[in-house]
Amino acid sequence: MRIAVLGHVRQRIAQPFAGGMESHCWHLAAGLQARGHDVVLFASGDSDPRFTIDPVLPTHYEATFPWAEHRGSAPLIAHLDGGYDAACDRIAAGGFDVVHNNSLHRFPIEPGRTATVPTVTSLHVPPYDALHWFVRASAVPTHRLTVTSARQLTAWWPEGAPPEASVLHNGIDPALWPFVAQGDGSAAWCGRITPNKGPHLAAQAARIAGVPLTLFGPVEDPDYWHAEVEPLLGGDIRYGGHLGGAALAAAIGQASVFVFTPCWDEPFGLVAVEAMACGLPVAALDMGAAREIVGEAGCFATAGDVPGLADAILTAMALPRDVARKRVERSFTHDLWLDRCEALYRDVATARTPLAA
């Protein structure tokens, strides 16, 4: 099939990944390409040159609108609207069989556009106001909507999801996250360093538990980093930097427990699955889809309960490491995820609406 993968343009689609959305989009394009599909990545022009890239914007937008300046910014909205409007026009004229839309933008899901090129949209976020009502109006036979967990399906459609919507769990390549039979007694945390990811809670809990902790990930919110996280560093609490690929997998795999601290309605938790593939049991705050994804491979604390999270760290460290790995192999592999994507593409490509006739 000829497939347009339409990405979010806040960050580059390239390693080291800024977050789960960038990782999802990169592995989707790479996986489909490896399966013989003709893939064009519509993303920022500074994304990974291994792909055929049709730039939505010349560079990712945080290069122009950094964290402190882009929230609710009218110039940014106009910048994005112009880029996505033109990109959608090029997709419509590009002879594509299907679009896999990861953009979180309203233009690609307009019924007139999805009638022209059948579309699968992956929703990686809870139902926030800027997109919520556009999504709800977009469910037509030539548009399939996926969410990453049953929790998010209910959040988007509390009255019951339409037939065009379904759960599509994210997947990883377990070979990229090698199983390690024994940890070194430490804890690891990984993610974007922002308040809604809660690294300060991980540091506080690890200190109470008396377990060394290393934080990994990009500092997305510098004000939060300086005020809430940096003062907690020192002794057994350290920052390991923003690593990518094999270096991150090796660093995570050395630890004995992964600390997962969502402070929002977490849609999935890709970082937890990656750590589980390495054999790490998970100590998690019970927010969003955390319990659904981690399951028997972890222990949980009530949202915001730092002492409870400290107890969960110590309890989780005693869980067998193969439990975590087997859960990933059973439910969250790259091949299973791509199989389901291809099934959605075949399904939506055969659909027709009056608009398309």
Descriptive account of the structure:
The protein is α/β, with parallel strands linked by helices. Helix content is 39%, strand content 16%. Strands 3-2-1-4-5-6-7 form a 7-stranded parallel β-sheet. The protein has a 6-stranded parallel β-sheet with strand order 10-9-8-11-12-13, with helices on both faces. Helix 11 (290-294) links the parallel strand 12 and strand 13. Helix 7 (199-209) packs across helix 12. The chain is globular, with a radius of gyration of 20 Å. This is Glycosyltransferase. Keywords: Transferase.
Summarize the SSE layout with pairings.
Blueprint: E1 2-6, H1 20-34, E2 38-44, E3 53-57, H2 67-70, H3 74-92, E4 98-101, H4 111-116, E5 119-123, H5 129-136, E6 143-147, H6 150-156, E7 165-167, E8 187-190, H7 199-209, E9 213-216, H8 222-229, E10 237-239, H9 245-253, E11 257-260, H10 270-277, E12 282-285, H11 290-294, E13 298-301, H12 306-316, H13 321-331, H14 334-349
